[in-house]
Amino acid sequence: MGGSDLSSLIRLSTGGKKFCTTIDTLIRREPDSMLAAMFSGRHTLCQDSEKGYIFVDRDGKHFRQILNWLRDGVVPTLTDAEYSELMREAEYYQLLGLLEGISSVLNKRKEGEESHAELTRTDIIKCIQSERVRFRGVNLSGLDLSKLDLSFVDFSFACLKNVFFSRANLQCAKFRGRCEFTGANLRGALLAGANLQGKYLQSL
């Protein structure tokens, strides 16, 4: 099959799913990919002579996403599990641009998950100084609150995941309700009188 006419329509059967595109789409954005090589005219392709479909022996679940990437260069919005599946297909087809795009999206997503704290350490210190020390339901995940005087502070229903409380004064602090303590560091913290009943703490 020749690849000289880039506007030629190509019918693909990928894992039983039918797709229609052009040679230009398959070659232009990722010229060094396996798909570009397949339709460069240098390879013999398995084509159904009756229906005109070229058979590609891969799962067709994400091939629509691959074609859309080749058409417009936009990384689709998917779940992490779906991205993992799409990356497997992108690796097979040697779509380096798509792989880089997915990696960038996943890194930004990870950075966003790790920086959800609604306040900074400076905000906390200002609140302590002004005696406005109630953080009920506030997301403080990942903050460094070490060595601060947090006595009598109300942290009820707050998210304290990965908070660094080392050597902080938490005497009589309130942790009522469902507080997320996963990964919190409480080494050396003063906890006398703190309401921690029923709380599961890690990294003590």
From TrEMBL:
Top-level division of the source organism's lineage: Eukaryota
Segments forming domain BTB: 8-110
Pfam families from the UniProt entry: BTB_2 (PF02214), Pentapeptide (PF00805)
Coiled-coil portions: none
GO terms (BP aspect): protein homooligomerization
Entry-linked SMART domains: BTB
InterPro entries: 5peptide_repeat (IPR001646), BTB/POZ_dom (IPR000210), Pentapeptide-BTB/POZ_domain (IPR051082), SKP1/BTB/POZ_sf (IPR011333), T1-type_BTB (IPR003131)
Pathway: Protein modification; protein ubiquitination
Protein name stated in the entry: BTB domain-containing protein
Species in which this protein is naturally found: Hibiscus trionum (Flower of an hour)
